[in-house]
Structures are given as C-alpha cells and as structure tokens.
Amino acid sequence: MVEFRKYKVPTDWGQMPQGEQIQQVVNQQLAPWWPKVFGYNLAKIGELSASLDTQLSSVKYHFSITQTPSNASIEALPADLPLQSNCIDAVLMCLQLEFEQDPYRVLREIDRVIISGGYLFLVGINPISPMIFGKVLPKYQQQIPWNGQFFMPSRVQDWLGVLGFKVIADQRFVYHHLFSQVNDNNIWQYSLKSWLPSAASFYLIVARKLDCPLTPIKKERRAYRQSWSPSANAGRESNMKKSK
Questions:
Q1: φ, ψ (nearest 5 deg) of residue 15
Q2: Residue 10 φ/ψ, nearest 5 degrees
Q3: Residue 237 neighbours by CB distance under 10 Å
Q4: Exposure of 187 by Cβ count < 10 A (0-12 exposed, 13-18 middle, 19+ buried)?
Q5: Rounded to the nearest 10 degrees, what angle do helices 153-163 and 103-113 cross at?
Q6: CA 153 to CA 90: how far, in whole Å?
Q7: pTM for the predicted model, two decimal places
Q8: Is the sign of the CA dihedral 105, 100, 132, 153 positive or negative?
Q9: Residue 85 CB: number of other CB atoms within 10 A?
C-alpha cells in the first residue's frame, strides 16, 4: 500500500473488499471495447489498471505507469507523466481519481499526452449508489476504497468536456455495497438495477479526444445589397425645381 499525500492508494485488487470479483467484472465491461482501439501505445495508469487484461486490443505496445517500481513499466505520478505530448493512442485508468488530491490535473495531463481521436477508458466509483453506506458508517470510512473521494459521473464528464473530450459511452455495473459477497441473483440488487439503473456502484466512461479550434470560426458575412433603386428621373425633377 502506497501513501500518496493524504489518501491510501490500493496497489492490488485484493486490498479492496470483493476486489478480485470487481476486477473480473471490470475486465468484462472493457472487453467489447478493445477490438475497436488501434494504434501504437496504450498506457495503463495506476496499479489497479496495470492488472487489467488488455490483450484483446490490437494496439502494438501496452505499458503501465505506476508509483510501485515492481509493477510499473514506467515509475511516475499520474499528475506528472514523463511522456511527450500527443504520443498515446489509448489510456486506461481505473479507480485512480478517487485517490488523487487534484484529479482535474491528472485529466489535464492525460489530455496532453493522448493523440487527437485517442480513447480514454475511465473506471470510477459512483457516490449515488450503495457504496455511500461505507462513507456513512465509521467502521468503513478509513478502509479502501471508502477512504478516497467519490465523484459524480456527470462531474467527471463535465471535466472531460472542458478538456475537449467527447463521451461516447457511460456504462454502470455492480449494484452492491461490497460489505459482503456480490451476488447477481440477489433480489435487492436486481430490483435496484431495474428501477434505478444509474445507481450502480461503478461506472465506465469511454471518451475520445477531439480536435477543436481555439477560437470559433465566424461565418463569412455577405455584403448587404439594396433591393431597390432610385427612379431614373428623380434627379431631373429636383433640378427643375431649383431652376424655377
């Protein structure tokens, strides 16, 4: 477990309740997207992201960026990536914003390194879900993942919109508080999924970086032309009046 500022960052899925089961579900949610991603470089940011399966992607090089040297292809902070600008085709980041003191700075850094048209896969915890009970009960408040900060998916999408990303998917999964074993056949979970599909404990946001101009392009204005013209004898009549 690595101490990052004031948040205890998980370095392994096993440190989170039902972590191995959640890892499997996250892999299932990501699997249909990997055949759609092409390019040369896929960066997995964070220890949990490094453990996810990306073999279905045809991107040539897959590497991880973590704070733990033993698990990292590159050892670095997510907010200070030692990469050139516009060099990454896809970024995967799982449960990382929850443990960053300045999450928007991390997203800005991703925006810097990712190419135009590149993919961002972002997995996070939804505060408006059964996970909120861990924030309320003192027994769980200092445990992973409830010791982190949870952001509304809509807020994360607003941040991405400001940076020039277009959200193409917002998937929700796992309707459970994680205090006990996750059981998909549970009637309570099934009812919550049916009646409140947006209240899932986890979300997957898929976004693509767009190339937008810094200033809006103004439409070309056409010269205004008068639709009328003075009569041919208007000037003659005025001269005749002056001569009289």
A1: -80, -10
A2: -70, 135
A3: 9
A4: exposed
A5: 40
A6: 20
A7: 0.83
A8: positive
A9: 11
Q: What is the pLDDT of residues 177-234, one digit of tens each?
A: 999 988 877 888 888 889 999 999 999 999 999 976 445 556 655 555 555 555 555 5
- What tokens appear for 53 in the block? 């399966």
Q: Return the DSSP state at 223.
A: P
Domains of the chain in start order, with CATH, are 2-214 (3.40.50.150)
Encoded tokens for 237: 């009549």
pLDDT tens profile 85-134 = 999 999 999 999 999 999 999 999 999 999 999 999 999 999 999 999 99
Q: How far is Cα 105 from Cα 80, in angstroms, rounded to an integer?
A: 9
Structure tokens at 69: 């040297």
Beta strand ranges found along 49-187 (DSSP E): 61-66, 74-75, 88-94, 114-125, 165-173
Respond yes or no on whether the N-terminal peptide bond of residue 32 is cis (omega within 30° of 0): no
Token reading at 172:
């929700």
And the tokens for 183? 């059981």
Helices (H), 88-228: 103-113, 132-136, 153-163, 187-195
For residue 35, what are the CA distances in angstroms to 24, 32, 38, 78, 174? 18, 7, 8, 26, 24
β-strand 114-125 against 88-94: which pairing, if any?
parallel
